[in-house]
Amino acid sequence: MEAEEKQDDGFELTRDAIKSLLADMFVAGTETSFITLEWAMSELVRNPAAMERLKSEVRASAKATRGRELSLLRRDDLGRTRSIGRQIGTE
Length: 91
Prior knowledge:
By secondary structure, the protein is mostly helical.
């Protein structure tokens, strides 16, 4: 790929063009996750009762999983929290 190739339509596929395309693909893939998280957090801030339910479920999940109340959770542990799915509409 070191050699630059010029296609029939005049577009050159350079190293910089490939880097730019890969960067665009990465940003596009993370943007949807960011928007979903931002929306979910704004909904939780607007609804304190839902925020409290979610906090209770996360703490209970951490305690059940790790045996302590304060613990880091893995992504799999969040499957036990039903409020997250209801809040962001995935359930």
